[in-house]
Write a structure and sequence with these properties.
Layout: E1 16-20, E2 23-25, E3 32-34, E4 39-41, E5 55-61, E6 77-82, E7 89-94, E8 99-101, E9 108-113, E10 118-119, E11 124-126, E12 131-132, E13 139-145, E14 148-153, E15 164-170, E16 173-174, E17 184-190, E18 196-201, E19 214-220, E20 226-227, E21 232-235, E22 238-241, E23 247-248, E24 250-256, E25 269-277, E26 287-295, E27 308-312, E28 315-318
Parallel strand pairs: 8-17
Antiparallel strand pairs: 1-2, 1-5, 3-4, 5-6, 7-9, 9-14, 10-16, 11-12, 11-15, 13-14, 15-17, 18-19, 19-24, 20-23, 21-22, 21-25, 25-26, 27-28
Amino acid sequence: FQAEDGIRDLVRSRGLGDVYKRQPYPPGTPGITWDGTHYTANFAALGLSFSDGEVIDICLRGAHDNPDYCDSNYADTCWTLVVNLASPIATLENPPIGTISACSHQGVLWFVEASNGIDPATGFVDDGTTVYDMTSPEMSYLPVSPTSGFYEFIPTTAWGALDWLTICIYGIEDSMAHVMIDTVCAEFRMDLLPPEIYGITPAPGTETPTTEPSIYFCLSDTVALINGDSVELTVDGVPYTFGSGWITDDTCLTWSAGDWGVSFSVSDTITICLHAADHPDTCQANPLDTCWTLIMPPPSVHAHAGVDVTICPGHSIQLGCTPTGYGG
């Protein structure tokens, strides 16, 4: 604290520091120093220590000037300090622990508070490969109040399609240089891939044995899983679904023309399209959209041997067998 008088000199010998439990510490006491302008009270040198949250009353008494006439002017004054040893505390806001993320640049957000105020120039983020500080473009601080705010980390390079990630923040300081004790980490997994389709039967582009075919296929997604609500099979322009409310990592499904009363024309080529998506916790699902064709069987003729079969009006053929012993 500072004591001065712009007209007459301060009488240093009369100043008393009353710091703790009304105990006075006059000038010359070890731990009380004077540099001509400032008094300094070194609590450690005075043998004093305080607990977190303790209130300290400090009074300066007896400091006065030295006028030539009349009584001296005294500068008795008191003030209060509160001991605050609390360090900053961080909590993970997003993404939650164990999240499956479909965000190509998944960021991490922490809420930080400190009763002494946050020093926004401090803090480090470690992604397991690189340590970032507040000069890094990936990091920013968003104040909410004088004692709280958000630290945000957004990578400038996209994560890998199926990366497991642990992103940690540490080293945040408050305005009194108290360092955050705990390291707070976000643990999540990326999934930037759509479900996989396999086992298509009949094989794409092949001929079916009947004009009322059954179409069989399987879907797999072992990370973000398959959202059954999203699965839609379009056959020759007509959409079909497979129920709702189910989620799985692997399933095989069948569409049968006979179940829907559908029959295609001989030799027709039909187009089948499948849409399916996974079920991540954050960002939009990864969609699978694929199409293939199937060919209906050609026309066939069935007749008994020796019977005329009319092919076109005015033309016919007769089927027979060789050798003649079999009716040829």
